Amino acid sequence: MTRHILLTGGCGFIGSNFVRFVLRERPGYRVTNLDALTYSGNPENLADIEADSALRDRYRFVKGDIRDADLVQKLMGECNALVHMAAESHVDRSILDARPFVETNVLGTQTLLDGIRRLKHAGKLAGDFRGVHVSTDEVYGSLPLDRPELKFTEETPICGNSPYAASKAASDLLVQAYHHTFGLPLCITRCSNNFGPYQFPEKVIPLFVTNLIEGRKVPLYGDGLNVRDWLHVEDHCEAVLTVLEKGVPGEVYNIGGNNERNNKELTHSILKAMGKPPEMIQPVTDRLGHDRRYAIDPRKLETKLGWRPTRSAWPQALEATVRWYVENPQWWQRVKSGAYRQYYEQQYGRR
Ligand code: NAD
Ligand code: TYD
């Protein structure tokens, strides 16, 4: 079966890796990327795809907002699959101002779902339509450090602690409601922390690596003992595609790397990969409400759909990611300086 995927948020970190992954792995597929180009949306992430004449027929970028009901409905009517990644995604920003998180993650997701519902009602939704809502392990809340046997399963109750996590949890509930009430064939994926190329340098790994290249210290929150489960972004992309192609509508699938590290361990691994001394660590005040530990039980996806991570093994995968930032200073320097914000107008003119 061929697919024309409407991807939301394709100019972000995971979205841009997903475009590249799908075009490479599924020669029959096409992708329409709907992205509003917020601060974390960077069309330079896909400059190589846009410049590739062999791929141009299979990829289209549309600048637009998932809260634009008419646009969403028009684009959805041209596609037969949805991968919904557009979101406000950074916990620290949600602590400073939760409103954009509610506007995009909650209201935006509801607008998207309503567009699909209307198309279905009008008999204009593709008969073979399938969709995936890309969510996060953060909707499950926090696990204690002294119970290493505990992991999040798909049955773990929702308990989003940060405004970001709460807004993603709300979007998950809306997706489930539209499946239950209107029969929309949608799955939800909940993934652990991603790492890899093109991650906006506000998230811990690219922030620390680029700070160190610039000779600056790295701000480690609190006691540094908070644990995250790290998965390479391409493993995440493969898992999302697997769920799109083989998932049972209405089901939730956890995605994780069985790769738990605390932040101190992560920071020392980055320092080692870059040949930097421990004195470059700057302990700073802890994040408000900082979740202690995330850990995913990915067995449902592994046993039911046959997915397994193959690109996430440490330290090699982390070292390769560090190398990518070291070897691509033009990418992150343009992000940190804000120059990437001009790229769209230079390429497409003012719209
Ligand atoms: P990102 O911040 O790098 O990218 C988000 C993209 O969405 C940007 O391109 C932005 O322009 C776009 N966007 C934001 N608001 C929009 C709107 N209203 N309309 C259209 N486009 C809009 O985020 P990311 O890290 O790539 O995360 C992608 C998705 O994966 C998110 O839904 C996030 O919750 C989820 N997720 C991320 C991680 C992670 O570790 N980064 C882990 C699990 C799940
Ligand atoms: P982050 O990359 O923001 O992802 P998330 O909050 O979604 O897990 O942070 C990962 C971990 O790193 C988290 O425990 C907070 C910590 N952290 C720091 O110690 N210093 C920093 O400057 C940042 C951004 C994060």
Name of the CATH homologous superfamily: NAD(P)-binding Rossmann-like Domain
- Give the overall pLDDT as a whole number: 96
Q: For the largest sheet, list the strands in their spatial order.
A: 3-2-1-4-5-6-10
CATH topology: Rossmann fold
Q: What is the N-to-C succession of helices and strands? A: EHEHEHEHHEHEEHEEHEEHEHHHH
Describe this structure in words.
Helix content is about 40%, strand content about 15%. It is of the alpha/beta class. It has a single domain, classed as 3-Layer(aba) Sandwich (Rossmann fold). Helix 6 links the parallel strand 5 and strand 6. The mean pLDDT is about 95. Bound molecules: nicotinamide-adenine-dinucleotide and thymidine-5'-diphosphate. The site of thymidine-5'-diphosphate (TYD) has 12 residues, from helix 7 and strand 8. The site of thymidine-5'-diphosphate has 12 residues, from helix 7 and strand 8.
Key terms for this structure?
alpha/beta; Rossmann fold; 3-stranded mixed sheet; globular; binds thymidine-5'-diphosphate
List the helices and strands and how they pair.
Layout: E1 4-8, H1 13-25, E2 30-35, H2 47-50, E3 59-63, H3 69-78, E4 81-84, H4 91-96, H5 99-121, E5 130-136, H6 163-182, E6 186-191, E7 193-195, H7 204-213, E8 218-221, E9 227-232, H8 233-246, E10 252-255, E11 260-262, H9 263-274, E12 281-284, H10 299-305, H11 316-327, H12 329-337, H13 343-348
Parallel strand pairs: 1-2, 1-4, 2-3, 4-5, 5-6, 6-10, 7-9, 8-12
Antiparallel strand pairs: 9-11
Quick description:
With 351 residues, the chain is an alpha/beta fold. Helices cover 42% and strands 16% of the residues.
